[in-house]
Amino acid sequence: MIKIIFQDSQDELVKAAGSLSCLFEGDRHIKSAASDAFSADLMRKHVPKDDKHFGIHLIAMGSQEKYGYNRNGDGWPEDGLKTRHNTFVSHGHLFREHKNTDPKFKVGDVKASAYNDKMGRVELIVWGDKDKAPDMYEKAASGKPLSFSMSAKVPYDVCSICANKAKGSSKYCSHLKESMCQYLPKFKKFAFAENPTPTFFDISEVKNPADRIAHFIEYQMTKAASATAFQYSDILAQAEGVSIPDTNVGCVDLLKQAMLTRLAETEQYVRAAINGDDIGTDAKAAFFKEAVTRAFEPQDITEAEMSIIRATEPGYLFAGLAKRATVLPFEAFVSYVTGNSIDQVYADPMVKQAKGLLPTVFQQMLNSESDPVLEDLFEPDFSKFSSGDPVDKVMDQVADRHSVNPQVAKTRIMKITVQRGSDLPMPVKSASMSDAVEEARKLSRAYGFYKVSFCVAAEQVLNETFVDEPVRLLVSYQHVI
Fold first, then answer.
1. How many CB atoms lie within 10 A of CB 171?
2. Rounded to whole angstroms, what are the CA distances from 351 to 90, 129, 377?
3. Pick from 95, 151, 92, 88: which is nearest to 128 by CA?
4. pLDDT greater than 70 at residue 417
5. Is residue 445 over pLDDT 50?
6. Whole-model pTM above 0.70?
7. Where are the domains of the chain?
C-alpha cells in the first residue's frame, strides 16, 4: 500500500518543533538549522558545494510514541523509523507535487537522514536545484514556510486495537473503518493504523494544505467507490497520483526488489546453461563456462571455522563478508542460522530438500508474498569496525574460497579445475516431499533474502555498480553446486 504523510499532520510535532524546515547555504544559517541529530559540524559537511544548489534541513515526521498518530490516522513506530529512515536517502528524491514517476522529474536529492532520539523524529537534509525550483528557493530565502509531504510504501498496516493487518483501507477492520482516531473505552486505547516497516521513496514540496483538502474532496466526488468521510492516507496517495508499483510480492525495500529482479533474470540464464540449453559463445557464455563453473568448491568450510562464525553478531558478520565480497555457501549459512554443526546440516533431510529449491529461489521470491521481517534479518552493520580478532581471520579465509569478486574468483579456478574436472554440475534435485516442506521453503527463502541483502550491501560498501553481470552469475550459480 502507498501512503502519503503530510509534514504538518502531527499537531504535537508542530508545537514541539515550531519551524519544520530551515534553509542553509554556505556557512549561513548553520547554527539555526542544526539540531541534536545534525550538529553544526555535521551540517557543514552537507552544505552544497556550488551555487547551483541550496540546502534545506527539515523535520519529516515524528514517532507515534512521542507524538501519537497524525490527522490521517497513521502512526509511525519508533523502531520502524529508526531502521527505515535511511530509505529516504537510498530511494528518495525531492520532487514537486509528487511528480515522482521518473527521476528526471526531480528538483533535488535527499542527502542525509537521521533519527533524533531526543526529540523522537526523523530529520532530513535535502538539496534543491535553484534552476529547477527557483520559487522554492526564493520562498525559503525570504523566510516563508515551505510545505512538504512524503510518500511511503508499506506492505500492510496494523490496527492499534485488534492488530489486524490490512493491505489497504478497503480491508480495514471495524475499529479503523468506524472509529479511526477515536478513543475506545472498551479497549482503553485510541484506534489508529500503525505502519511498522515503511519504505520512503519521495519527498515533495506541495501547495498550501487547504488546497490539498479541496483537491482531495474533488477527487472523492469523482471516485464514488472510494468515497469516505475519513481521509485515509492511501486514498490521499491515489488522489495525489503517486504511482510507483504497489505490489506485496518480492521485497518491500525497493532497492532490494530491483536487485531481486536482476538476480532472478540471471538465475534463469544459469538454469538454462546447466540444463544444456544453447547459451551461445559470447563473452557472457565464455565467462560462465570457463570461470563461474569452476569458482567454488563445496563443503570446504570447517567446523572449527563455523564455530567462530556462529559466535559472531549478525550485523558485524554480514558487514565483514560484504566488505570482502563474500557470500556464505548454503550449508554454512544454515549452520549459522540454526546453530547446528556442519555435519548435522549435511545429514538433515530438510536441508537437502531446501537446497533442492535453491536453483529457482529468486524467481520464487519474486512471485511470493513479501516478508519484511525475514527481509530485514540480514542487514549489515558497517558502524562496527575492527581487525585482527579471530572472526576477521576466519572471514579472510572464507573469502579466499567464496568471494564473488571475479578477480578473486579467477585465482581459485585452476586449483578447483584440477581437483574436480571441468564438467558442469547438474542442478540439485529436490528431495521427496515431506512434512518438512514448508520449513524447507522458509530456509531457501531466507538464503535468498540473505543473498539479496548481500548484493545491496556490497554495492554500498564496495562500488555502486559492483553487482554487475559477472558477479550476478557467480552469486546465482553458487547455490546450485
1. 14
2. 35, 53, 20
3. 95
4. no
5. yes
6. no
7. 2-157+200-240, 254-478
